[in-house]
C-alpha cells in the first residue's frame, strides 16, 4: 500500500472531500487524524472508518493557532510522527460585492487561507526537525479550487482565499524544497458535497455548472481523494509547487458546452 506506515492529518475531514481523502488514505495504509470543528460528525466519521485501519478525530479550528498547536501535539502523542498534511477545511460566504460584511470577509480568509498557513507552519516545523535528524521528508497538500484562477462575482472572499492558496502553495513549496518537503495543491471543479448541496434542488444551477463542465457531470469526492493519494505518494516525488486541477475540463474551456436534455 502506497501510504503504509505514514501518518496523515486532514483538516475539515468530518464530511465531503476531506472525509473521502481520509477514507482513501486509511485504505492506502496511512494512520489518519481527522481534524474538524464539527465534533459530532467528526467522531462519527472516525467511527465509520475505524474498521479500515488506524484513525482518530481531533477537534481543531484551523483559524486558531492554539487549536493547531494542540492538534500537532496530540497527533505526535498518538502516532509519533506526521508525514502528510492536507489543508482541506474551507467555507463559503456568498454576498453581493456592495453588501459584503467585513466580518464575513475576515472569517473566510482566516479559515480558508490563514488556517492553511498556520497548519502548514506548525507541521513543517516538525517535518524539518525530522529531516535534520536524518528522517524522511513529509508532504503538504492544499485544497484549492478552480476559483484560484477564475472567479464568481458573489463569492468574493472565497475566490480571494483560493487565489491566495495558489501563492501559499508556491511560496511554501519553495521555502521547504531544500528539505525535500513537497507542497502541492488540488483545484477541484464542482464536486458533489454539502458545499454544493443547493445545486441538487436547483435545476438551473445544475445546468449552469454542467454547461461549464466538458465532461458533463459533477465530480465525486473520491475523484479528488485519488489525486491527493497520488500527490501524497512517492509517485509524485519530483512534483512540488503545483496546483492540479481536477475539474472535468473546466479550466481549458472558453464559453460553454451544450448540456443534453437528459443530463
Ligand atoms: N465541493 C466543491 O465543489 C469544491 C470545489 C472546489 C474546492 N473545494 C474545496 O474543498 C474543500 C472541502 O470542501 P467540501 O465541499 O468537502 O466542503 P464541506 O462543507 O462539505 O466540508 C468542509 C468541512 O470543513 C469543516 N470546517 C469548517 N470550518 C472549519 C474550521 N474553522 N476548522 C476546521 N474545519 C472546519 C466543516 O465542518 C466540514 O466538515 C474546501 O477547502 C473547499 O473550498 C470544494
TrEMBL record:
Signal peptide: none
GO biological process: fatty acid biosynthetic process
Record key words, sorted: Oxidoreductase
UniProt cross-references to Pfam families, sorted A to Z: adh_short_C2
Keyword Oxidoreductase: yes
Highest taxon in the source lineage: Bacteria
Protein name, as recorded: NAD(P)-dependent dehydrogenase (Short-subunit alcohol dehydrogenase family)
Amino acid at each position: 500500500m502506497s501510504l503504509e506506515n505514514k501518518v496523515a492529518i486532514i483538516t475539515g475531514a468530518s464530511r465531503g472531500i476531506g472525509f473521502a481523502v481520509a477514507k482513501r488514505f486509511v485504505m492506502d495504509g496511512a494512520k489518519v487524524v481527522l481534524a474538524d470543528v464539527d465534533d459530532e460528525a467528526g467522531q462519527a466519521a472516525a467511527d465509520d472508518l475505524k474498521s479500515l485501519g488506524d484513525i482518530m478525530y481531533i477537534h481543531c479550528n484551523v483559524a486558531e493557532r492554539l487549536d493547531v498547536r494542540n492538534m500537532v501535539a496530540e497527533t505526535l502523542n498518538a502516532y509519533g510522527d506526521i508525514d502528510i498534511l492536507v489543508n482541506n477545511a474551507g467555507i463559503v460566504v456568498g454576498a453581493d460585492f456592495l453588501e459584503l460584511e467585513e466580518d464575513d470577509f475576515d472569517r473566510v480568509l482566516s479559515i480558508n487561507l490563514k488556517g492553511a498557513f498556520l497548519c502548514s507552519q506548525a507541521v513543517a516545523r516538525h517535518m524539518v526537525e525530522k529531516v535534520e535528524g536524518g528522517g524522511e521528508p513529509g508532504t503538504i497538500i492544499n485544497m484549492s479550487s478552480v476559483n484560484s484562477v477564475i472567479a464568481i462575482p458573489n463569492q468574493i472572499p472565497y475566490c480571494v482565499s483560493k487565489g491566495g492558496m495558489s501563492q501559499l502553495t508556491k511560496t511554501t513549496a519553495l521555502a521547504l524544497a531544500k528539505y525535500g518537503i513537497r507542497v502541492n495543491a488540488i483545484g477541484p471543479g464542482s464536486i458533489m458535497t454539502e458545499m454544493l448541496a443547493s445545486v441538487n434542488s436547483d435545476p438551473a444551477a445544475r445546468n449552469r455548472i454542467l454547461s461549464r463542465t466538458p465532461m458533463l457531470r459533477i465530480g465525486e469526492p473520491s475523484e479528488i481523494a485519488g489525486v491527493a493519494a497520488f500527490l501524497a505518494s512517492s509517485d509524485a516525488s519530483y512534483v512540488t509547487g503545483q496546483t492540479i486541477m481536477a475539474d472535468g475540463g473546466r479550466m481549458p474551456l472558453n464559453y460553454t458546452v451544450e448540456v443534453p436534455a437528459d443530463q
